[in-house]
Protein 1
Amino acid sequence: MQPSIFSKLKALQERYEEVQTLLSKVDVVAEQDWFRALSREYAQLTDLSRYFLLWRKVQGDLETAAMMENDPEMREMAQEEFQLAKAMSKELEKQLQLLLLPKDPDDERACFLEVRAGTGGDEAAIFAGDLFRMYSRYSETRRWRVEMISANEGEHGGYKEVIAKVSGEGAYGQLKFESGGHRVQRVPETESQGRIHSSTCTVVVLPEVPEAEMPDMSQSVLKIDTFRSSGAGGQHVNTTDSAIRITHLPTGIVVECQDERSQHKNKAKAMSVLTARIRAAERAQRQQEESSTRRILLGSGDRSDRNRTYNFPQSRVTDHRINLTLYRLEEVMAGKLEILIQPILQEYQANQLIALSSEQE
């Protein structure tokens, strides 16, 4: 282990012990904001502390095994124990490096999932519906809650645009690399000649902004319109102006919500989506300004990027960012999305580790 990494781990271990002591103090418990902040820090440092203490114990085992090799009667057993301890030490160092990687504070938050039909007309809208079902099924396997915000249905099925909120532990962290372009290759239901067509959809995943971090947007920068909901009918849907359209005048960002019968609830949902979009736009601008010093590891996540191709005739799905091809398309569309998400996350972590090692040299 590099001395700089060891020093950092030792300092974090000492901080873990300090936080542990602070959390037992009565005056800290009385200050709820401070107590919550320390509790979060304690939770973040727990695994790192546990692995670091275990790593130090293994170093002791290595030293003991090395000393035992001087004894002819113990040499064979000592060499075996040395190799086992060495392998464990290597694995623990890998885990510790992963725990040292900078964490995106948004990763544990809920997120907004937006799927839009691109080129391809009715087939693009149908595929947008297929993608949304894929994400919904994946969310079910993770026990996340999917709450519809708004939906603009296609004439022959699917969606021209659908926006939903996905709530659950780690939702944004697991889905954030889904942002970008998704292409489908298949024979459309509306195709009479049996020819394969290519259509596209775009996916955008935005982290939910906690209420405490929401910017104070005065009415002067917002234009709020009400209108009657469109949809499958019903007494309230077509007779009350419950739907909400909010325009953020400085940026021109527009959000609509008509899923709820209550105008108040629709406004609250629309404001949440609007805040997430404004924050994402600010982040994109900041990243663009810092592009000279940033390394784009897995694509920018812009809507123009082509993340994946879903080829139905060959039952093939390809993620172009990491050159991964699987012939398990049916499983993916049924919600087994982890077989694509995990390799992307592993590639991202591997690149982060390379960057971390470069910084330490």
Protein 2
Amino acid sequence: MHRRIFLNASRTLAVTLLALSTLACSTLTAQPRFVVSKDQLQQVVGKRFPLRYPVVGLLNLEVQAPEIRLLPEQNRLNATMAVEASGAALNRKQTGTFEVEFALRYEVSDRTLRAKALRFKRLSFPGLQPMASDMLNLYGQTLSEKALLEVVLHTLKPQDLGMVEGLDMQPGSITVTERGLVVDFVAKAP
């Protein structure tokens, strides 16, 4: 009788150990990740606006907080901002939109996710004459670099990195998904 109990207990222990070792192996091979939601992105970026840019002697541009759209098929983000133009070059204030797309990178020095590889899409003022609108679009690339180049979209907190730093890992690729950003962790380079 004792022998039967011992054998059953041994089998149960063996099955449990096998299950635990399988789970441990699958956990070790899974890549650690950190997810940043679209709402978190929107909130952080919104704090940095409005921004004002003078074009000396001609006009002033005021850019409002962007609406962020995720572009998972391109692994990029889109930002559309309301912009107001006023000044000597215009008869009255004009309201329009400003749109850019960008990719992301991780900055180790301050644990931030930042905009990179900006692509100016358009700067549109429906109420302006075509010549004035063309002039503003010439300034669009410069405006996009000033407004969003190196903009911090998220800062990872020490507790976000605590466990992975202990495993000698750091943020690697950043993938844009339908729900937000997925930051994969990779082994630190020697």
Protein 3
Amino acid sequence: MNLTRLAIIALVIGACALVPAGAAEVVVQADFNGGTLEPFGPTSYGDGDVQAEVVEGLGPDGSACARIANVGQAGGAALSCSMTYLRGHAYTITFQARAEEGSAQVSAYLDRGDWRVKYPGGYSRDFALGEQWQEITYTAIHQQGRGYLANLRCNSPTPILVDDIVITMSDAVFALNWALAANGGVASADSLYAQYRVEPLNDGVQVLAGTDFTRRATTTAESDEPHWVQVSFPGERPLSRVVIYWAAEGEAVYSSRRFQIEALIGEQWVPVAEADEPEPVYVSMVGFDEVQATAVRIVQPPGGGPAQRPNLMWISEVEAY
């Protein structure tokens, strides 16, 4: 990455995760000193059951904390809490955790999209735990506004202890989508694969499950040369972030492995960011210094497409902010 890129998920331990500028509002908090798990409750995943309880005297400061254990066959035991999410906001969960003894694993979940149709589950990676308390932070930018849940999951036979859970919501990182057709955006492409159209590129629909792919995405011709898609605005617009929803088919995701963002400033196309996605991703979010532009273009170099089809560019939706 040559310029600034906002990752769709930020994972850190013992440090501040990526949160856009602006005050963060606390939306969920629990320290378990009241003797209950509220606002959390026990949830089990897979072939197993969950044992979750408040235990006294084992917290980081010697007070109460929560204990989460898998019971029976291997599964996932979790503390879960209902949440209402607002699209475009970054949510951060921070908590203290340790293995009850030896070593264990924990992961965090922040619902971040419609996992039933397009997005993978909103889980962090597994964090390794020892017997010493450590602070863990996980951030996800929410892509669709709806309510589901947040949780902390024990992913090992060894029980874990957790405490001081805080979930915050940042100011919105999405504003008015200049690329949207309803806002005057006009889509175009260097070429089109047979029967595909440019209209899905900025129709405001990130997924149309069970429908013709030519209605779900825009696909360029399959040729060993540069490809581009662009959206022109009805006038000059402030531009500092581009969101790309890549095409998906079943479990396969067709994200371009290399691409560049260009902005039309005056009469000149100016590169504002370069990005690479070595592993398939459903969504790429690229941030850069704000410019005043009349169009945005995503350019893929020869062979820079998805690993399965490196000579085409296959995009479900483009958003520009």
